[in-house]
Amino acid sequence: MPAWSPRRASPPFRSPQPPWPPCRLGASTSAPRPTSAASRAALAVNIVPAVVTLMGECRSLYEDRVLAQRDAMTRALEEAAARFGGQVEVAWELDYPAVMHEPGDAIVAHLEAAAATCGLESRHATSGGGADANILGTKGADAITLGIGMTNFHSVDEYIEVADLQNMARYVEAIIAEYAG
Q1: Residue 91: other Cβ atoms inside 10 A
Q2: Quick check: 104 pLDDT over 60?
Q3: CA-CA distance, 117 to 71, in Å (whole number)?
Q4: CA–CA gap between residue 59 and residue 64 (Å, rounded)
Q5: Whole-number mean pLDDT of the chain?
Q6: How would you classify residue 19: left for phi > 0, otherwise alpha for psi between -120 and 50, otherwise beta?
Q7: Domains of the chain: residue spans and CATH
Q8: Closest CA to 56 of 33, 27, 82
Q9: Which one-letter DSSP state was computed for residue 119?
Q10: Contact present, 56 and 6 (Cβ < 8 Å)
C-alpha cells in the first residue's frame, strides 16, 4: 500500500480536528485514510509557539487514491495557513509502496501448495499495513506478507499461541521445499 508521510508542516491550527476533508477512518484499505501521528510545538503548554511540526500519513492500496488524498491534505494545510496568516512547508515522503498479488500469481500458488503440504488452511486477505514485503518489492523481489497467527496484534495484548509458532515453522520448511523442488 502506498503510504505517504508529510515530514514538516507549520500551520497555525486552532482546532483539534485535522484540516483536511473528512474520510471514513478505519474503512476498507481501498479508501484513502489520513492519520495524524504526532504534533510537536514547544516545551511550555501555555504559549502559542512560533513553529509547530505536524507529522502524519495517508494510506491506500491504490496509488491514484493515495495521491489524491495527499494532495487534498496539502491543499487543506496551505488553505488553513493562508486563512490564519501563517506559513506552511509540507514535505511528503513515500514510506512504502503497495504490494498486491492475485490468487493466480506464481508466488501465491507456491505458498498455497506449501500450506497444503503441511495441512494448513490458506486464507487471502488485503492489508493496509506496511511490512518488509513493501520494501523488498521496490528492490525487485516478488515478496508477500504472511500472517503467522498473531492475536491482538499491534496492541499491548499481542500474543501468539505455541501451536501457531510450531505451524509457522512447519510452513516455512514447506515453503523452502516447494521452491527447492
Answers
A1: 9
A2: yes
A3: 47
A4: 11
A5: 79
A6: alpha
A7: 3-96 (3.30.70), 106-180 (1.10.150)
A8: 33
A9: T
A10: yes
Distances (CA, A) of 132 to 78, 144, 169: 33, 9, 19
Mean pLDDT score, 135-144 = 90
Task: Give yes or no for a contact between 107 and 101, defined as CB atoms under 8 angstroms apart.
Answer: yes
Contact in structure between 123 and 31 (CB atoms under 8 Å): no
Which parts of 33-161 fold into alpha helices (H)?
63-83, 106-117, 132-138
Q: What is the CA radius of gyration of the chain?
A: 21
CA 64 to chain centre: 16
With a cut of 80, say whether residue 23 has pLDDT above it: no
At residue 55's C-alpha, the angle toward residues 52 and 56, to 5°, is 145
What does the block give as the cell for 4? 505517504
Average pLDDT over residues 113-138: 88
Q: What is the distance between the alpha carbons of residues 181 and 4, in angstroms, rounded to a whole number?
A: 40
pTM of the full structure: 0.65
